[in-house]
Amino acid sequence: MDNILSVLVFFPAIAGLLGFVVDKKSARAYGITVAAIEFLLSLWLWFSFDTANAGMQFVEMIPLIPDFGVNYYLGVDGISLFIIIMATLMTLIGMMSMSIETDVKNMIITLLFLEMTMVGVFVALDAIIFYLFWELSLVPMLYIIGAWGGPLRVYASIKFFLYTFMGSLIMLVGMLFVAYVYHNLTGVWSFAITDWYALVLPVDYQLWLFMAFFLGFAIKVPMFPFHTWLPYAHGQAPTIGSVILAAVLLKMGTYGFVRFSLPMFPDASVMMITPIAVLSIIMVIYTAMVAYAQKDMKQVIAYSSVSHMGIIMIGIFAMNAEGIGGSVFQMLSHGIVSGALFMLVGIIYDRRHTKLMSEFGGLAAVMPKYAVIFGIMLMASVGLPLTIGFVGEFLVLLGFYEVSPIMTILAGTSIIIGAVYMLSVFKKSFFGPVTNEENKKLKDLTPRETWSLVPLVAIVIWLGVYPKPVLDPINKSVNAMLVFMEEKAITAEAKEIIKVPQSVTKAGEVK
Amino acid sequence: METLVYIALFAPFAGSLFAALFGMSERKTFVGIVGSALIGLSFVASATLALHIWQTGEAIHVTMMDWISAGDLHIPFGFVVDQVSVTMMTVVTLVSTIVHIYSIGYMDHDKSFNRFFSYLSAFVFSMMILVMSDNFAGLFIGWEGVGVCSWLLVGFWYHKPDQSREENPSISPSWAANEAFIMNRIADLGMLIGIFILYWNVGSLQYDVVFAAVPQLSGTVLNAAALALFIGAMGKSAQFPLHTWLTDAMEGPTPVSALIHAATMVTAGVFLVIRANPIFSMTPEVSYFIAALGTFVAFFAASMALVNRDLKRIIAFSTLSQLGYMFAAAGLGAYWIALFHLAAHAFFKALLFLGAGNVMHAMHDELDIFKMGGLKRVMKWSYIYMGVASLALAGIPFFAGFFSKDAIIETAWNEGTIVLWAILVVTAGMTAFYSFRQVFLTFEGDARYTEEIDYFKDGKHQPHEMYGYVLIAMSPLAILAVVAGFGMNAFEHFVTQLLPDYHMSEHTHHIAWILGLVVLVFAVGGIALAYKKYYKGLKRDEALESSWYYKLLANQYYIPNIYEEFISKPYAMISDMMWNKVDLKIVDATVDGIAKFLYKTGDGSRKMQTGNLSNYLNWMAVGAVILLVVAAISAVALG
Asked: Smallest Cα–Cα separation from A231: which of A284, A173, A290, A172?
């Protein structure tokens, strides 16, 4: 299959269209089948992926508007490959565990469209195509929050939409300007990211463009102080919306930094290390504290999401293979773990119709299976070794230590304060005597819930014990990117800070 | 031999998984039996390995598979069995086996029996990873693993509600579990930083590579690495100021206290210092700090044990105090003596705890020694065991503690650190006093529980001795507590093949008997004082108990209260403020403010569209003027 990427992008959308004619009662089964096929396709992509090759693979290129250099241009490398697999996996799992009873058919169709846009963002190699999917992804999510959300759903969905939309408009301006500069320098128009990589820009251009892209990405991540849309969105979104939002949509922001900002503006990126690290550290500590103050279980997970995204941001700006590789791995880890945690919160919400921790207490005695899975995810979330959460966090902090020991210590407090709020959630909800009458007869996990969560538990442990199959391809592509950034950087400072692993430099010398 | 390494490591893991299979079903005795057998298997493998290394003197190094590799970082799952790790493995698995068997009896009536064994075996597995790993990252896996198992086991009776600090100083099992985990995490950050420092200066985390590179590293780097690693050690080994979790951890079932919070996990910090001795011996300042802190903690903890009334907390303070001794030895460079005391302490302290468990089992979880007394009549064997353990702890010749603790005190003299020596000697006296205060109050004198507790009235719940098989299972510990000291020379010969040897100077050697005598005078004095005051039963001394220093000690110098008032509460308050005041009122309100402003301007400017042509022309003129001005300014500015 040469055009597997196109299939991956458009299969869910076409299936979604066909979904309109599917009977309401079988909509759910239909959706799960489609999502399962899509997931298998993405696995097939992984098996046919050449792990020895660090560059773009499965490249497809069809000119769309040749005069302006807009092409339908797709490809994957080690960095995007696993995010795509995670997106298809989380869509499938989310659909399997979904407890929504109203308008199931519409939800399934919306999710399938959302899946198209998510995969599209991560395979796009043309800035216009990237932008198109980036913006399109807002629409299904807007609909999910607005139609299935809580009482404040309209406010939350509009806030989510307008906020992120504004950021991406500024990013679009940045993209147009890069294309303009490219045209000025080479005489041809191109929106291909790989063409843009070759562009060596003066430092002041880099800084301005960095800022334009930064706004778009930072709001999506969301970085402090642009994060306030997220708690509202999570607070109002149905479980499935939160799962996809936390697991995949936020990763678009951090992925954008790796795909665009770093390789295109290496000097500006190096100059921005300190401000971004400061923001990220604030994000890590401040939102962890805010998470501790929450009374609503889901809000804790929402704020903890922001806190963990801070770790990912720091890793990206470590400018070495350990940090960036760890960061990409942490994106996957955060996707799986926070997705699972949102599903777990959804499970108790379905039973009690409340998420307030003061309503619970002693759940471990009533729902032991639920408590075990929650406990495993909690441990992954606080970065326990041999769970998926450790590998990324460890590499990120290790990587950033080379840049700044002091800031690493500050960011490292996340392992302490992360434990503080997560353990507090666990204690308030699961420990102590069962005081509330309503909790005494709660049913433990149903088979459907169990089978949605067990694969995630398996992944959490598998990739914690043996991350190599995932980490190796990521590492290879990150190394290639670093080599390229170091060559391209024009300031001495950037050349100094961007650190190509010695193993790569040595291998190069031998050749 | 490689197979044996894997058996020693993975048998406990198999036991844990096996027990987990039955985790949610009702109590099944065979789960405990299988678990104990698998730990026993691990012990046999460890002991065989120890014998092998004893005979050949060669370490066994196995690499199972890669774990993490990114950039230049390569971390394998590698295990090294050498003189140091095999000592730890043998001690850990031996105590674990006994504690497992003991638990079959002790947890007899607990409905979560199977779950208990799953956690307990998982702990042993983590501890084995900790001691066997051949690199710092692998050590960290075990380090965190034991932390989680400790969290699970301290909070084992999670259903108990929170109480006020006056009712229960540890508030509740789940509170104590969280406290332990979080305090350890604070230290773990230090440990991680130490790992990062080593990685960026050496390029590897393998012990052999790092230790080989130590001579090339600068003093600053070594000091920073040593200090950061020691901060990690301070958490696990509960050194001041991260010590409060250890006594609170006594909320866990007693076998857990014996295994985790006395014999094995808490010694992990000491093990780290011993393991990383090539680093610590290059950093005299940090090492001296370790010794001084250890000495301080030895005294500090012993002082709190003097007045405590809680059977388990007294032993916990004494553990803390003995850990201080171990750090004193390690800090002064006598690594093998520290390791010897670690092993000897594991035996007699586990014995002491298990004996206390017998008492609790008999007394229906009563812990206040003021409400006991006279138990020797019904619990002869437990009395003997606890008596032997206390004699060993007090350092009475020729019990195990006599050799190991004396060597530490002698080291302090030999290094010329007279102040440390004096403190350690006084502490030895205090140790003897509180140990026998506890033993006498529990077993001697008249029974004080009759009035207080209803056991005797219904006739069914008389205090009773522990099951026979449990007492038999405890006997190896008792024997070791008596005889372990005689293996000191052989032990020195064995471990100093790897660790730096430490000899007393000629001068110290000459006066060794005087030094020993001084310590002995203090120890015997302590016992004599305890005998005088408590052998005939408890005589409350109201004046003493209401004095300020008694209260200060009984309230642990008010440190838990200080932590609560100045750390926990402010943290909760600031968090709340961050959310309600900053996040909602400033950050979010600004965003909404900007949005509202844009909306209002849009709404306002809509009024311009009146449909009136002359109005439009006016606006057009305004616009044209503004454009002209902008053009003029930019023309001037850009020149």
From this structure: A290
Mean pLDDT (10-residue bins), chain A, 511 residues: 88 92 89 95 93 89 89 92 95 91 90 94 94 93 90 88 90 93 91 91 92 93 89 91 93 94 93 94 93 93 93 94 94 95 93 88 90 95 93 94 94 94 93 87 90 95 94 93 91 89 72 41
Report the pLDDT value the prediction gives residue A510, as an integer from 0 to 100: 44
d(CA A339, CA A343): 6
Query: Tokens 């001697």 identify what position?
Result: B444
| CA–CA dist B132, B90 (Å, integer) | 11
Rounded CA separation A201/A489 (Å):
9
What gap in Å lies between CA B353 and CA B254, rounded to an integer? Answer: 7
**Chain B interface, mutation test: which of A427, A440, A479, A486, most B Cβ atoms within 10 Å?**
A427
Which residue is listed with tokens 């190069």? A508
Nearest CA in chain A to B599: A162
Across the interface, do B587 and A398 touch by the CB < 8 Å criterion?
Answer: no
pLDDT at B455 over 70: no
- SS3 category, A466: coil
Structure tokens at B201: 């200066």
CA atoms of B147 and B154, how far apart (whole Å): 10
Q: What does the alpha-carbon distance between residue A393 and residue B185 come to, in Å, rounded to a whole number? A: 14
Which 3 state secondary structure label does DSSP give A237?
coil
Residues in chain A: 511
8-state DSSP, B268:
H
Cβ neighbours of A290 in B, within 8 Å:
575, 578-579, 583
Sort out which chain B residues have CB atoms less than 8 A from A326's CB and list them: 70
- In the prediction, which pLDDT does A31 show? 93
Closest CA to B400 of B488, B492, B466: B488
- The distance between the two most distant Cα atoms of chain A, rounded to a whole number of Å, is 74
DSSP tally for chain A: helices H, then strands E: 26, 2
Q: Enter the ipTM.
A: 0.93
CA B379 to chain centre: 30
Q: Is B175 on the interface with A (CB under 8 A)?
A: yes
| Nearest-10 crossing angle of helices A368-381, A414-430 | 170
Of B69, B145, B203, Cβ closest to residue A385? B145
Tokens of B276: 């990383």
DSSP secondary-structure letter at A463?
H
Closest CA to A267 of A495, A500, A107: A495
Does B602 contact chain A (CB < 8 Å)? no
Q: How far apart are CA B607 and CA A500, in angstroms?
A: 59
Q: How far apart are CA A454 and CA A456, in angstroms?
A: 5
Rounded Cα gap, residues A417 and B364, in angstroms: 38
Q: Is pLDDT at B7 greater than 60 in this prediction?
A: yes
Size of interface A-B (CB pairs under 8 A): 161
CB–CB of B192/A397 below 8 Å? Answer: yes
Cα–Cα distance for residue pair B98/B39, rounded to 1 Å:
9
Query: Cβ A431–B595 below 8 Å, yes or no?
Result: no
**pLDDT(B24) > 90:** no
Q: Which of B489, B498, B170, B477 is nearest to B316 (CA)?
A: B170
Say if residue B10 is exposed, middle or buried (CB neighbours under 10 Å; 0-12, 13-18, 19+).
middle
Cβ B578–A286 below 8 Å, yes or no?
Answer: yes
DSSP string, A375-433: HHHHHHHTT-TTSHHHHHHHHHHHHHHHH-HHHHHHHHTHHHHHHHHHHHHHHHHHSS-
| Separation in Å, CA A150 to CA A105, B104, B497, B509, B617 | 19, 51, 68, 79, 48
Q: Which two tokens stand for residue A132?
A: 């198109």
Q: What's the rounded Cα separation, in Å, for the pair A237 and A260?
A: 30
Rounded to 5°, the CA angle B573-B577-B578 comes to: 115
